[in-house]
Write a structure and sequence with these properties.
The protein is of the alpha+beta class and 424 residues long. The protein has a single domain (6-420), classed as Orthogonal Bundle (Cytochrome p450). It contains 16 helices and twelve strands. Helix 11 (219-248) crosses helix 14 (284-296). The termini are far apart. This is Cytochrome P450. Its cofactor is heme.
């Protein structure tokens, strides 16, 4: 992953062993599968559980959406979607707009050079703090940011909990995050709020009731799933934004098309007006460019499942308890699905219905499709709007390589030279 040779390793494996092969991964008997049929099997089969490696389970919790099945999955997903569905999120476009404007004022304005990836992580994390917890800028948010970075460092480390190891530091960080989120939950429970739902994710989840009038999710389920949403929303959006900024620096045609689209929106508003849901709907080309970045540089390289019983795929028996691994790039970079797959071409997404099902899986698929994809769309579009209308930039680093730690990370975090536009 660090050497960024994982894609070639998988391609070589397929050439040698075919579309289904077995190996040992993280000490567990594992089957690697790929292709459209494999993606469909992974996202729709009731025979598979979503079991992450022990390190991820330990750090995010065992009651997160991706770790549960059947009725629990339906219940937790339904609870999350009460906040993450478009008709609710459209109320928060203005709030996200304000947070993003503040980010550019604090971290970009007056600077000659910036390093993109850490700043995009800061931006997406601040948006999550605002929308998930309604947590204002200050000491508590700073602590949460520090602990979350420590948590991420142990994600794919060897799960041996010994002092001074990366995994041990991550366990300490996740424990501190859990305590803070529990405190926030107790604070919200102690306050009577007339318009309780939809103020933030935690308030929304606390407001939900089951048939017995008990809270639909337990406090621990709320903590685990908030932590998982933090991880998913933080890394995915920051990677897309970073690699889109990197690409636009060297692609004047795509940059000009995005700039034209965003300038038309900017000139239709006065400087004090916030972006609206209707403005986002006009950003069609910008979003197609983001989808193309997700195709070429999927933030999540591979996914893990575990068989609940003896299973059959592709004519092979997969025993109960075995791990199943799939990788997004195996269909994203398949030239029979996406012609000239290495070419950056947003027009591929002009008619998304023309893309075969379960071939573009940047957000997953079927019942396992990412519930936060609309949240990510708003983050990305609003950020790109202010970036291209307020700044020009060029890369400081000629090395255009990247590695995975475990997310795609450009050389040196992508330092760029920026210049603020003079706007009338």
């Amino acid at each position: 992953m660090k050497a960024n040779t994982a894609e070639k390793w998988l391609e070589d494996r397929v050439k040698k062993y075919g579309p289904v092969s077995k190996l040992t991964l993280f000490g567990i008997p594992t089957v690697f599968i790929h292709g459209q049929a494999a993606n469909k099997f992974v996202f729709t089969s009731n025979i598979l559980n979503t079991k992450q490696p022990i390190s991820i389970q330990t750090l995010l919790g065992k009651r997160i959406l991706t770790e549960v099945s059947d009725e629990d999955h339906k219940r937790i997903r339904g609870a999350l979607m009460t906040f993450l569905k478009p008709e609710v999120l459209k109320q928060y476009v203005g709030k996200m707009d304000g947070e993003i404007k503040k980010h550019f004022e604090m971290h970009w304005q007056g600077k000659e050079t910036v390093t993109v990836l850490p700043l995009m992580k800061t931006l997406t994390f601040n948006l999550l703090c605002s929308l998930l917890f309604n947590l204002e800028h200050g000491a508590r948010r700073e602590k949460l940011t520090k602990w979350f970075e420590q948590l991420l460092q142990g994600f794919l480390s060897v799960p041996v909990n010994l002092p001074f190891t990366r995994f041990n530091r991550s366990i300490q960080a996740t424990s501190r995050i859990q305590n803070m989120v529990m405190n926030i939950i107790h604070e919200k429970k102690s306050i009577k709020q007339e318009a309780y739902p939809h103020k933030d994710l935690i308030a929304s989840l606390l407001s939900l009731r089951g048939n017995d009038n008990a809270t639909l999710l337990s406090d621990q389920e709320i903590v685990d799933n908030v932590r998982a949403v933090m991880f998913a929303g933080h890394d995915s959006s920051s990677v897309v934004l970073t690699f889109l900024i990197r690409h636009l620096a060297n692609d004047p045609v795509v940059y000009a098309a995005i700039l034209k689209e965003q300038e038309e929106i900017a000139t239709s508003k006065n400087s004090e007006e916030l972006l609206t849901w209707e403005d986002l709907a006009k950003m069609k080309y910008t979003w197609r460019a983001a989808l193309e970045i997700l195709r070429i540089f999927p933030p999540i390289f591979a996914g893990f499942r575990r068989t609940r019983e003896d299973s059959e795929f592709g004519g092979y028996l997969i025993p109960k308890g075995w791990q199943v691994v799939w990788a997004a790039n195996m269909t994203h970079m398949n030239d029979s699905i996406f012609p000239e797959p290495s070419k950056f071409d947003p027009s591929r997404f002009e008619n998304q219905a023309s893309i075969p099902p379960y071939c573009y899986v940047a957000f997953g698929g079927g019942q396992r499709i990412c519930p936060g994809n609309e949240f990510a769309r708003i983050q990305i579009l609003v950020t790109i709007h202010y970036l291209v209308t307020q700044y020009t930039w060029k890369l400081c680093c000629e090395d255009n390589k990247f590695s995975r730690h475990p997310i795609p990370t450009p050389t040196q975090g992508l330092p760029i030279q920026i210049e603020q536009k003079n706007r009338l």
